[in-house]
Hints:
By secondary structure, this protein is α/β, with parallel strands linked by helices. It has one domain: 3-Layer(aba) Sandwich (Rossmann fold), CATH 3.40.50.1110. 46% of the residues lie in helices and 7% in strands. It has 11 helices and 5 strands; from the N terminus they run H-E-H-E-H-E-H-H-E-H-H-H-H-E-H-H. The chain has helices at residues 2-24, 70-77, 98-108, 119-122, 133-150, 166-172, 176-185, 189-192, 198-220, 231-234, 252-262; strands at residues 32-36, 85-87, 112-116, 156-159, 225-227. The protein has a 5-stranded parallel β-sheet with strand order 2-1-3-4-5. Helix 2 (70-77) links the parallel strand 1 (32-36) and strand 2 (85-87). Helix 3 (98-108) runs parallel beside helix 5 and helix 5 packs parallel to helix 9. The radius of gyration is 20 Å and the shape is globular. The N and C termini lie far apart (44 Å). The relative contact order is 0.16.
Amino acid sequence: MRRSVVLMVLLSLLLAFGGTTSAQALAVPSSMASIGDSMTRAADVCCWYGDHPANSWSTGGASWDGITSHYERLRALNPAIAGHNYNDAESGARMSDAPSQSQRAVAQQVRYVTILMGANDACTSSPTSMTPVDVYRSQFRQTLQILDAGLPGSAHIFVASVPDVYRLWQIYHTDLLATLVWQTAGICQSLLAPNRTEAERQAVRGRVIAFNTVLAQECAAITKCRYDAGAVFNYQFTRSDVSKLDYFHPSLTGQAALARTTWPHSWWG
């Protein structure tokens, strides 16, 4: 009896230390890529219109912007990643564009991929033109399958939730300049158009929530994938987090918040 107890204790200790060693042994990647849309391209983030990928929450590397991106955090842990940060996102992209972006990441043979995609699937010209949830699921599943099959075995994937775009309406709908820019530039008219009813706006928000459910479920089916548990969606961004160029995209402060909010949910956070 005493021998059995000793063996059980030893086995428990081996399992405990084995699990700790495995977690600690997770290699810091030497390359990474980002899949996404204009948020990951850091569109209109500061100073002038257009993409500013150096200021991206994911793969950005600018030293002056106050943003500590995933790439910069990983570089501090593994200097070998320096210069191997690929921003494969495209402004205006929807989930239908994610499979082709994932193919680029596979061609680059990176060890880490971030995904933030779906805002443009909800922010369309009208609520009726939003991407159907089942279509979104199929496109995201295909994206993950491409990455899972084509990336090196040691690679990892991080998926950020789609932000709560309804919050833009909450914090800026009484601002005349913001609403003028939204209308003139045709920004997210499914939700931000002045003639939308509250029911229509809630329908857009509901679609974003449904998209995030898809992200969580599909990511959970892939061993090398980790979801942010809704951290980006739940982040209560303020006016300072939003670009004053278009009143839609993250500002420098907003990009910093994206990096800060997502990192704790990543593989190395």
